[in-house]
């Protein structure tokens, strides 16, 4: 094979690979996204359980109300009927918005996890870091899904997170940590549910999955 | 003031009275659990704390996390006793419900602790439905295929809820279940179940984030009685090998002898002819070794080795003569071993032997009738054997002692030998007279003198063939075949007997007669009885003077063989030997120490007529 032909062959291979990467079906993308969101929620649940194992009772009293989560302003369907009526792209944007809203708080959590006044601090720290990784990869994946879906508008809600400190004393920090984590747990469940609805809606060819 | 005080006292008295009666306000109820089967509705259950002896009513109140509005349970009946069912309309997701239960009776009420509930976290689906277990027959073997349906209420189709299934199998007698995760599929194939056994199957499910459902009712399945492929294969292999082993054993048994020979080759035992192992075992060695004795060993061949004894041995004194004679004789004879002086000489070299073998070079012609006595055959050594053997050099004496037999060997110097001579002295023979034996004439001459004709004796059979050279003392045979001048009336005598020279006729012929000849004249009888003649001396003219035993009866007689060389010895009874050499070169006459004449050098030439 001459040099020219070799070059042509390499280009063709690269193009095929590029197309194949982008040519990953929506089903597969959503499948992958669902898996990631599932893992996300599982991690948050285990973190919550770890924290609850040694949580002072006074902390529960001090716990802010869930409506105090920074993402509570986002309007999401509350039941199944509502959720099934939401179009896919809106579901996707909701999921992406929630996901984006938690990138900063998770950074704060991972930085604060190592100094928590908690016996399970190390485990919590490692899990928090893993949580952060998953969120980043899921965000990238949802980016692909969004691109794949050819949405006309990209209406992401902005959910800013202004808190840059969990508290001054260890108890408040622990309580705030716990509170943030609980907010994230709920939101991760929302994301997971939405994505799984999307997955089943796209997988018309594989009814056995849904 | 008084009223309130009085009221208080009265209330206190009433409570005491009531307590004495056994009634009290209700105990504190407790919410036990809340569950949502499909993430659409949910139900909460509580347990009463105690009714206090009075009829108590329970009420459940709840409020959402972001509202203060308190709602009471919409449905107390659907879910049964002490439960509250929240239908779809009343169920909100991702919202905390703050639920309390109030128990109240006539005396009072009691409120349970509040419980925070988020519906999405309390999902526990119903059990799967329509579980079936079917035996499927496959070429690999039968297996059980368990299949089920999703719980009716769960909406997995829209993806609202995702269920994961699990089944477990065991035999009735087993303690532990064998669990299998089926994932999201609604069937499962169970392998490696034992044949002819009954199995119990149960299935349950779980949402992706929730609680496991209850196990379904047991489904029974019976495995058929079958032989596994693997086991049947092993059975066949075993049977095959058993068969092969049986065949091999039978074959080995049949051919055990040859197998034994092949595996354990026989160790060669001692093979000694005549050696009997049994005798050896029995311990009688004499018998054993007796059998080893071979009869007839050492082989007494007819002629070969024994001739060693009969080789001539020369005395030292005579050696010069011997040497001289020998030198001459060598010219005449074709001797085979010219060098040895001692008795180890070959027969051909031996000047005492008249051997056919030595005639090989010459015209050994047909002496055909050689009859040698057996005795004689053993006496003479063949030329070859004697030469090769080189028999005892140091035993001249023995040879002497035994060398009674020595033939007259007359070498023929001329190439035309044997025809002329009337006497075919074929074989070494004992002669009564060591001279050429001639025909026997009727006029046997007996005299003290024997004239030896220096004749060429033609040994027609010089050749020393084995039977030819044999002869015994008693041998006396002349080969008369080659004799040109047939003597009248004389037939070749094959018998072995001594002959004597009767007389020498004018034709220079020795007339011989056998010793047993009845025609022997008496006068010479005594003299003719003599077998041997001794040489007294050798004259200068090469005349051999033979000595004879003096006998008065002996008549001096001599024959004049030749005019030229004949000499008459003057003395009567004196042995004289005329040696007529007609034209023959003078030859030395070998004389042996014992007086016997070695007549090998004698050339008796009979004038041919």
Return the domain count of chain A. Answer: 1
Query: What is Rg of chain A?
Result: 21 Å
Instruction: Encode the helix/strand succession of chain A as letters.
Output: HHHHHHHH
CATH architecture of the domain at 129-230 in chain B: Sandwich
First-to-last CA distance of chain A: 50 Å
Mean pLDDT of chain A: 86
State the CATH superfamily name of the domain at 129-230 in chain B: Immunoglobulins
* Counted beta strands of chain A: 0
Assess the beta-strand content of chain B as a share of residues. 15-25%
- Shape descriptor of chain B reads rod-shaped
Strand percentage of chain A lies at: under 5%
Structural class of chain B: alpha+beta
What's the level 1 CATH class of the domain at 129-230 in chain B? Mainly Beta
Question: Within the CATH hierarchy, at the fold level, what is the topology of chain A?
Answer: Growth Hormone, Chain: A
Query: How does the helix and strand content of chain A classify structurally?
Result: mainly alpha
Please tell me the CATH architecture of chain A by its name: Up-down Bundle
What's the main sheet of chain A like?
A: none
Number of helices of chain B: 11
How would you characterize the overall build of this protein?
The complex is a heterodimer of chains A (210) and B (609). Chain A has a single domain (44-152, 163-209), classed as Growth Hormone, Chain: A (Up-down Bundle). Chain A contains eight helices and no strands. Chain A has helices at residues 3-22, 26-53, 57-62, 80-85, 88-101, 103-113, 121-149, 170-202. In chain A, helix 2 (26-53) packs antiparallel against helix 7 (121-149) and helix 5 (88-101) runs antiparallel to helix 7. Chain A is globular and about 75 Å long. Chain B is an alpha+beta fold. Among the domains of chain B are: 26-118, Immunoglobulin-like (Sandwich), CATH 2.60.40.10; 129-230, Immunoglobulin-like. Chain B is 18% helix and 21% strand. Chain B is built from eleven helices and 23 strands. In chain B, the strands form eight sheets. In chain B, strands 3, 4, 6, 7 and 8 form a five-stranded antiparallel beta sheet that branches. In chain B, strands 12-11-14-15 form a four-stranded antiparallel beta sheet, with no helix packed on it. Chain B is rod-shaped, with a radius of gyration of 76 Å. At the A-B interface, helix 2, helix 4 and helix 8 of A face loops of B. Chain B: This is Prolactin receptor. Chain B: Pfam families: EpoR_lig-bind (PF09067).
């Amino acid at each position: 094979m001459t040099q020219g032909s070799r070059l042509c062959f390499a280009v063709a291979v690269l193009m095929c690979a590029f197309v194949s990467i982008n040519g990953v079906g929506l089903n597969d993308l959503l499948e992958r996204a669902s898996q990631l969101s599932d893992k996300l929620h599982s991690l948050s649940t285990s973190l919550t359980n770890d924290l609850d194992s040694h949580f002072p009772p006074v902390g529960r009293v001090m716990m802010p109300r869930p409506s105090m989560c920074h993402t509570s302003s986002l309007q999401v369907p509350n039941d199944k009927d509502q959720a099934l009526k939401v179009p896919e792209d809106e579901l996707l944007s909701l999921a992406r918005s929630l996901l984006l809203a938690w990138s900063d708080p998770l950074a704060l959590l991972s930085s604060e996890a190592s100094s928590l006044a908690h016996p399970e601090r190390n485990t919590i720290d490692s899990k928090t870091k893993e949580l952060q990784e998953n969120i980043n990869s899921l965000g990238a994946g949802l980016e692909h899904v969004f691109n794949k879906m050819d949405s006309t508008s990209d209406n992401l809600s902005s959910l800013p997170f202004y808190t840059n400190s969990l508290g001054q004393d260890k108890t408040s920090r622990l309580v705030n940590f716990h509170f943030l984590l609980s907010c994230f747990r709920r939101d991760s469940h929302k994301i997971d549910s939405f994505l799984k609805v999307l997955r089943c809606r796209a997988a018309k060819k594989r009814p056995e999955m849904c | 003031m008084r009223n309130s005080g009085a009221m208080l006292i009265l209330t206190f008295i009433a409570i005491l009275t009531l307590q004495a009666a056994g009634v009290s306000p209700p105990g504190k109820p407790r919410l036990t659990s809340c569950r949502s089967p499909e993430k659409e509705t949910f139900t909460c259950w509580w347990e009463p704390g105690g009714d206090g002896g009075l009829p108590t009513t329970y009420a459940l109140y709840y409020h959402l996390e972001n509202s203060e509005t308190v709602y009471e349970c919409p449905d107390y009946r659907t879910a049964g006793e002490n439960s509250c069912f929240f239908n779809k309309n009343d169920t909100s997701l991702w919202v905390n419900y703050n639920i309390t239960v109030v128990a109240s009776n006539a005396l009072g009420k009691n409120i349970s602790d509040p419980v925070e509930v988020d519906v999405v976290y309390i999902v526990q689906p119903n059990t799967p439905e329509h579980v079936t277990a079917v035996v499927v027959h496959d070429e690999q073997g039968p297996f059980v295929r368990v299949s089920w349906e999703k719980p009716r209420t769960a909406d997995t189709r829209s993806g609202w809820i995702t269920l994961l299934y699990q089944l477990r199998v065991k035999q009735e007698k087993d303690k532990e279940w064998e669990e299998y995760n089926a994932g999201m599929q609604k069937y499962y194939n169970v392998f490696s179940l034992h044949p002819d056994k009954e199995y119990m199957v149960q299935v349950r499910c779980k949402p992706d984030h929730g609680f496991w459902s209850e196990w379904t009712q047991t489904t029974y399945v019976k495995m058929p009685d079958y032989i596994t492929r693997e086991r049947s294969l092993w059975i066949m292999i075993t049977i095959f090998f058993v068969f092969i082993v049986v065949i091999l054993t039978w074959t080995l048994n049949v051919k055990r002898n040859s197998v034994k020979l092949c595996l354990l080759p026989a160790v060669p035992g001692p093979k000694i002819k005549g050696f009997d192992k049994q005798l050896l075992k029995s311990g009688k060695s004499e018998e054993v070794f007796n059998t080893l004795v071979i009869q007839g060993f050492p082989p007494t061949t007819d002629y070969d080795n024994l001739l060693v004894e009969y080789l001539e041995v020369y005395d030292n004194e005579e050696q010069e003569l011997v040497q001289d004679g020998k030198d001459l004789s060598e010219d005449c004879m074709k001797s085979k071993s010219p060098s040895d002086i001692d008795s180890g000489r070959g027969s051909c070299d031996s000047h005492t032997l008249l051997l056919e073998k030595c005639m090989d070079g010459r015209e050994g012609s047909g002496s055909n009738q050689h009859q040698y006595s057996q005795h004689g055959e053993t006496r003479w050594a063949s030329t070859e054997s004697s030469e090769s053997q080189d028999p005892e050099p140091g035993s001249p004496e023995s040879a002497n002692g035994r060398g009674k037999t020595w033939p007259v060997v007359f070498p023929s110097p001329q190439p035309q030998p044997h025809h002329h001579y009337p006497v075919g002295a074929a074989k070494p023979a004992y002669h009564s007279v060591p001279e050429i034996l001639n025909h026997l004439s009727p006029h046997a001459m007996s005299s003290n003198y024997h004239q030896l004709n220096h004749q060429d004796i033609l040994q027609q059979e010089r050749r020393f063939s084995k039977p030819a050279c044999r002869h015994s003392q008693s041998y006396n045979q002349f080969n008369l075949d080659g004799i040109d001048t047939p003597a009248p009336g004389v037939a070749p005598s094959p018998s072995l007997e001594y002959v004597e020279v009767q007389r020498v006729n004018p034709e220079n012929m020795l007339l011989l007669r056998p010793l047993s000849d009845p025609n022997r004249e008496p006068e010479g009888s005594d003299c003719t009885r003599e077998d041997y003649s001794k040489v007294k001396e050798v004259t200068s003219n090469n005349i051999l003077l033979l000595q004879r035993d003096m006998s008065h009866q002996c008549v001096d007689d001599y024959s004049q063989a030749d005019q030229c060389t004949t000499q008459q010895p003057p003395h009567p009874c004196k042995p004289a030997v005329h040696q007529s050499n007609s034209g023959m070169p003078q030859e030395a006459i070998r004389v042996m120490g014992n007086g016997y004449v070695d007549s090998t050098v004698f050339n008796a030439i009979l004038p041919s007529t």
